[in-house]
Amino acid sequence: MATSNAWNASSCRMNGLSPSWTELTVALLIGKLLHEQPVDEPICVPIPPGSVHVELQELQRDQTTSARQTSAILNFATGDEMLEVIRAYQGIAIPITHGYHYYNFHVLDYGASSTGDDAKHAPVSLASPPLHLQLLALSKKEIERRLALFGAVTSFHQENSVGNPPKKKRKRNSKRCRVHQHVTHVAALRRALGNSRPSMEILGVPIPTGTTDAMLECLRKCTLWPPPKKQRRGVSAGAYLTVRRQHPPEQDQIWDLCHRMIVTTVPNAIYNALAITKAFSGSPHIDNHDKTFQHVVAFGDFEGGRLCTEADEDGRQVVEIDVQNRVGRIDGRAVHWVSGWKGERYSIVYYSTSADDMTERLPQSVHTDWMECSTRQQAPKS
Question: Which of 7, 12, 93, 295 could pair with 111 in a Cys bridge, judged by C-beta atoms 3.0 to 4.6 Å apart?
Answer without folding.
Answer: 7
